[in-house]
Structure formats: C-alpha cells, structure tokens
C-alpha cells in the first residue's frame, strides 16, 4: 500500500487544505488547488497525468505527493434486468461489491462500507463470512467514482442515488462512513436526500447520524416487528433490542423530519405470518416510515426460500389498508447473485461468478419473471417502479 495521502479519501475541505499547502510550498498560484479539485471531483480524473491545464512538472509533483486510489474492477456482471454488479479489488486484495440499479427515472448505486460484516445476520451471505476489515472513506467514496465513470462510458448517465446496502454495516464503520458521506455530498454533489444509510440497528450510530445537519436518509433492516423473532434473524437484537432501536429512530426523525425506511425481507414460513404484517403496519404507521417488502434472496448457507408471491401481496395489502406507504421490491439481479456478498462468495469459492456460469434457478415460489432483489433502492415511491413490478 502506498503511504502517500489519498486525495479520494479527503473531504473537499481537507483536499483544499492539502493542495493549498502543496502548491504554496512549490510557489505555485493558489488557483492550482482549485484546478486539481475540479479534475478530481467534477472530472473524475483517473490520474494526475490527464490534468492537462497543469504544467507537466506540476502533474509529476502531484503524483509524487498524493495518490488517487480507486478500487480495481475484477468482475462486471450484467443481469438480464439491467442491474450491473462490480466486484472491486482493493489495494490489499480484499474484495467488495457495488451494484448499479437502473430504473426509468433514476440510477441507483448500492455500495459497500466494509469487507465482510461482523453482524452475522442469519439470512445474509455477507454475514456468514464475518468481518475482514473496515473500508476507508476513500474506498467507500471511490466505489461511486469508479461506478460513475463506468456508467458514463456505458451510456447509463449519472448516478442519482446512493444506498449503503452492499457489504457491511455502515454504522459499524462510522470513522470512514461519516467523511465518505461528506465526500459524496459536498465533493461529488449528490444530494443528502439521495443518499441512504442502511443499518441493522446500531443505536449509537443512528443517534450520531441524527446529529448530522444534512438530510441523509436512514433505512432500518427490520425483518421482524417483534424482538423474539428478530433475534433469530439479527443477532444484534440482543445488544440493541427493538425498543431501543425504535427510540433511536424517533430521535432521528425528530432531528429535522428525516425520512426513515423499514426494510423487511420476507422469508417463507419464518417471518411472513400475516399477524406480523399487522404489527409491522402499526410500527411503520407510528414512525411514519416507508416500508420496503423484499422477497428473500436465497443464499448458499441456508435452505430458506422467499415467501410465495400471494403471501407477499397479502402482506402488502395489510400495510396499504392501514395507510402505510410501501413498495414491494420486485427482485433484481438474481442471475448475477446481486444479494449482498454473493458475488464475492462465488469468486472466493473459485466458482465462476453467476451471470457467467449458469445462474441459480428461480425459487419454487417465484414466478418466471420474479428476479430476486437484494439491494433495493429504498426511497423509490411505488410510482417509480417500472412496469410489471408490484407496488401499492
Ligand atoms: N448492513 C446493512 C446494510 C447492508 S445489507 C443492513 O443490514 O441494513 C443491505 C440489505 O440487504 C439489508 O436490508 C439486508 O437485510 C438485505 N439482505 C441481506 N441478505 C439478504 C438476502 N439474502 N435476501 C434479501 N435481502 C437481504
Ligand atoms: Fe451485515 Fe447487513 Fe448482512 Fe446483517 S444484513 S450481516 S448487518 S450486511
């Protein structure tokens, strides 16, 4: 790993300072820092070499003083439904994933905050591998940068939304998450309301995020509206029980009317009893939260299946009847293992990544068009869903 300070891991303020110092020592005019900032943040320049409005010796000096470290793309998998997954290799060889999800009016990027995850949720491929390490702010934000350049080259346009629903628990890596949020928001110009942090319920992190002045959005991976059942899916429930998580969500909401989404992955016979739909509706109504119902995406370590389509619909109807804003996330990207951690899992096991090798067949309960969704955009209103998707 290089020891040079990485410009991509700096907030715009830090970058300005570091570049200002650099150019002042070299006796260069002040505007050089602004030139470089533009190249890095607006131009997504992959190297100092392309910064052709700077003298050649200044480009060389920049390359000696700083790095621009982007993850290297090792696999690109394209789903038949337009979802694109990148597997990135970090400098030390760790692998993380991000997913681009185009819909008709937006391009959502789902990014990773950790290599692996320590939370051990029993339905999640990433959870089974444990935590390998935290990503740095630069490694988080660079997934956006590298994906945006890729999207431009492929004619997909601008990424409109970023969700932290790839690998890892973002609020367990706040040291890097918080500057990464600033970099995405102030550096790359993504509106705070277009950035969603998804958490399994780390209370201190929710409270800290609530203190941020920006309107970042929060998604809670709920998966069960009662503590006993939730504990079997989300081990963190033991440490931060639902009552405390809900209190933290209220604090988040109270800190400026910030929007909350509840994620509920429907697993057949596990958390899809219709009594639970009533309880979920109560909780969501109370919190004025938006609910995403997500069909479980089967993983190699469990024989669970997604809930049948009619059960998902019945769940949705109960929520809608009780006035809860919600969407059923039609499945995306199953043929490329778009569930969090799955592409990495197949790369590590030596198997060809799905989408290249034969894709997993549809779950018995899934209709032929029902591709499994793993990394949904949580803040799409039902009207945003493309034709053929369910929504309420
Ligand atoms: N750690 C954070 C963010 C990453 S997980 C969190 O848990 O919220 C992103 C989302 O993918 C979460 O809502 C998680 O519950 C969901 N997820 C993980 N494995 C899944 C699977 N096999 N099927 C469907 N959703 C899954
Ligand atoms: Fe970690 Fe989220 Fe997976 Fe749970 S669902 S193991 S918190 S990545």
Structure, explained:
This protein has helices at residues 12-25, 31-42, 56-65, 125-129, 137-153, 174-187, 203-211, 227-233, 242-254, 274-287, 309-321, 342-348, and strands spanning 72-78, 84-89, 95-103, 106-110, 114-116, 131-134, 161-164, 195-199, 217-221, 260-266, 290-295, 326-328. With 392 residues, the protein is an alpha/beta fold. A hairpin with a 5-residue loop joins strand 1 and strand 2 (84-89). It starts with 11 loop residues before the first helix and ends in a 44-residue tail after the last helix. Residues 117, 123-124, 164-165, 169, 198-200, 221, 263, 265, 294, 296-297, 299, 339-340, 374 line the site of S-adenosyl-L-homocysteine.
Short description:
By secondary structure, this protein is α/β, with parallel strands linked by helices.
Would you tell me the structural class of the helices and strands?
alpha/beta
Our measurement of the CA-to-CA distance between the termini, rounded to an integer number of angstroms, reads 49 Å
Q: What profile does the largest beta sheet have?
A: 10 strands, mixed
State the share of residues found in helices, binned by percent.
Answer: 25-40%
Strands side by side in the biggest sheet: 1-2-3-4-7-8-9-10-11-12
What overall form do the CA principal axes indicate? elongated
Fraction of residues in β-strands: 15-25%
The ligands bound in this entry are:
S-adenosyl-L-homocysteine, iron/sulfur cluster
Low-confidence stretches: 345-392
